[in-house]
Amino acid sequence: MLHDRILVELDKDASERRSASGIVIPATAVLGRRLAWARVVAAGPSVRQVSEGDRVLFDPEDRAEVEVSAHDYILLRERDLHAVAESSEPASGHGLYL
After folding, report:
1. Number of C-beta neighbours around residue 70 at 10 A
2. Contact 62, 32 (CB under 8 A)
């Protein structure tokens, strides 16, 4: 990865969602602008706030898709991210940060 680019893989559960009552909402349903979570696979040398394995929140409309070794990934810039969640539980016990 070059400069401030980040390669992410969409979460497996990003395709379908469930409502509070348990109704399955397919990915094709349009509910307005909705942000998506993904896992960071690789990050360029200029990326400062994100590391490999972190979960990131981004706008699916601001993305470029790429296929590498028969896997679909999304290429983003660090400035296109809205939030970062640590990949593992912090030792302090304060939970995930956003």
Report:
1. 5
2. no
Global confidence as pTM: 0.67
Look up residue 87 and give its two tokens: 């990949």
Please check whether residue 42 is in contact with residue 6, taking contact to mean a CB–CB distance below 8 angstroms: yes
Give residue-wise pLDDT tens across range 66-76: 888 888 888 99
**What does the domain layout of the chain look like in residue ranges?**
5-85
Main-chain phi, psi angles of 12, to 5 degrees: -60, -35
**pLDDT tens figures, 9-39:** 887 655 566 667 777 766 666 555 678 888 9
Q: Which two tokens stand for residue 75?
A: 């290429």
Quickly name the fold that domain 5-85 has: 10 Kd Chaperonin, Protein Cpn10; Chain O (2.30.33)
**Closest to 7 (Cα-Cα) out of 59, 93, 49, 67:** 67
For the chain, the first-to-last Cα distance in angstroms comes to 24
